[in-house]
Amino acid sequence: MKKNSLLLVVIFLISACGMRDAVTPTAAPPPTYVRPTARVLPIVTPVCVSTDPTQADIDSALGYTGDLFSEPEWQRIYTVSDGSVAVTWSSDTLGSVAYLEVLIFPCGYEEPDLNNFFSNENWGVIFENYESYAVVSECITNTGLRLYQFKAMEQGYEYDIKYWAENDSDTRVMAVMIVFPVESSSLMDEYSADLFPELTSCK
C-alpha cells in the first residue's frame, strides 16, 4: 500500500513538472498615437503675362477714342514701351493736349494696387513738366471707373486736367487724360461727355 501511495506521489510530481506554467492574461498596450504628418500645401504663384505690349494693345490704344481727336485739328504720335502703349494728341489751335495709355499689370491688379499706382508719387511723375499742379477732386463709379481732376500751371497759363482710369481687362488699365486752358471749360466738358458720359466730372 505504501508502494502504491509512493508511486502516486512520484507520478503526480512528474506530471506537475511537465505542465506548462499558467499564463496570466495581461491587458494589451494602448495603441501608440502617431501624429499625422502635416501636409505641405503648394505655393500658388499668380499666372503672369508678358509686359511686352501686343498688337492688340496697340490697336486698342489707337482706336479707343475713335475720331474724337482727329486731324487736322489734332496731331497724333504714339510710342510702345515695356509695360505700356501711349498715344498723345496735341492741338495748337485749342492749346490742348489729350493723352491715352494702356497700362499693363502683368500679374493682374486689384483696387489696392490701383490706389497705390495712382498716388501722389505717380502724379509727381506725370506732371513733372508743369510748373505746379494741385488735385481738385477724385471719384469712382460702381464699375471701377476713376476720375481725378487737377489744376496746373505752365508758362504762366492755367489748365484744367481730367484723368480717367478704366479697368479694361484682368491685366490692362486704360488711362485717359485731357488738358484744356481754364477758359475752355465748356469745350472740355464736351470732350469729357464724349469720352466718359457716365463720369464727366466729380460733383
Number of strands: 7
The quaternary organization reads as single chain
- Alpha-beta content class: alpha+beta
| Strand proportion | 25-35%
Mean pLDDT, as a whole number?
Answer: 85
State the low-pLDDT regions, or none: 1-29
- The portion of residues assigned to helices is 25-40%
Q: How are helices and strands ordered from N to C?
A: HHEEEHHEEEEH
Q: What gap, in angstroms, lies between the N and C termini?
A: 132 Å
Walk across the major sheet and give the strand order. 1-2-3-7-6-5-4
Number of helices: 5
Annotation keywords:
5 helices; disordered N terminus
List the helices and strands and how they pair.
Blueprint: H1 2-18, H2 55-63, E1 75-81, E2 84-91, E3 96-104, H3 111-117, H4 120-126, E4 132-140, E5 146-154, E6 157-167, E7 172-181, H5 185-195
Antiparallel strand pairs: 1-2, 2-3, 3-7, 4-5, 5-6, 6-7
3D structure, described in words:
The chain is an alpha+beta fold and 203 residues long. 25% of the residues lie in helices and 31% in strands. It has 5 helices and 7 strands. It has helices at residues 2-18, 55-63, 111-117, 120-126, 185-195, and strands at 75-81, 84-91, 96-104, 132-140, 146-154, 157-167, 172-181. It has a 7-stranded antiparallel beta sheet, with helices on one face. Strand 2 and strand 3 (96-104) form a beta hairpin. The protein is globular. Residues 1-29 have low confidence and may be disordered.
